[in-house]
């Protein structure tokens, strides 16, 4: 399970917390919970969706904890640096036969700018885009995972994409 879904769990925890240290701790906790609760896995959703749900619930429980609230004041690391490092190797380069160094640099810069826009969105939009774009979950899987209706997922996805598109166009002007 860890080999196949470890990166997905860590990345999702990272996107929810914006901290590599917290993502490390949370992903370990997720797999401990998954291993101890595997007998409760009913197979009504994919294993990936189940693990991401555990990740989400564990993260929200962690956020409510006193430790998380107090640790927010002590953090001095740069989110932008972590964000760039977290995405290394995850970007999907544009399809060129042999991309030039310039084309590759421009492509990566655009990907970084788009993810910067996504990361600045309110949680409810950012999380949906992440689940949809990065983890390729269906509308119904997202709805089940978040405990909201499929119509709400579609509506929020549409609004989130519109917000990203608008901010991208404003940056490009």
From TrEMBL:
Taxonomy, superkingdom: Bacteria
RNA polymerase sigma factor 70 region 4 type domain ranges (all copies): 113-163
Keyword Transcription: yes
Domain spans labelled RNA polymerase sigma-70 region: 2-65
Pfam families: Sigma70_r2 (PF04542), Sigma70_r4_2 (PF08281)
Keywords annotated in UniProt: Sigma factor, Transcription, Transcription regulation
UniProt family annotation: Belongs to the sigma-70 factor family. ECF subfamily.
Name under which the protein is recorded: RNA polymerase sigma factor
């Amino acid at each position: 399970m860890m080999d196949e879904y470890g990166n997905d769990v860590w990345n999702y925890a990272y996107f929810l917390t914006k901290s590599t240290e917290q993502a490390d701790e949370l992903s370990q906790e997720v797999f401990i919970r998954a291993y101890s609760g595997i007998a409760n896995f009913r197979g009504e959703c994919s294993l990936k969706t189940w693990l991401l749900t555990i990740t989400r619930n564990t993260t929200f429980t962690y956020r409510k904890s006193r430790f998380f609230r107090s640790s927010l004041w002590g953090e001095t690391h740069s989110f932008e640096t972590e964000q760039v490092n977290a995405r290394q190797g995850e970007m999907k380069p544009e399809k060129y036969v042999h991309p030039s160094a310039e084309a590759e640099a421009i492509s990566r810069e655009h990907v970084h700018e788009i993810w910067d826009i996504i990361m600045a969105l309110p949680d409810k939009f950012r999380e949906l885009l992440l689940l949809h774009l990065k983890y390729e979950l269906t509308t119904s899987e997202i709805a089940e995972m978040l405990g909201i209706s499929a119509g709400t997922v579609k509506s929020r996805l549409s609004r989130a994409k519109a917000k990203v598109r608008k901010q991208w166009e404003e940056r490009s002007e």
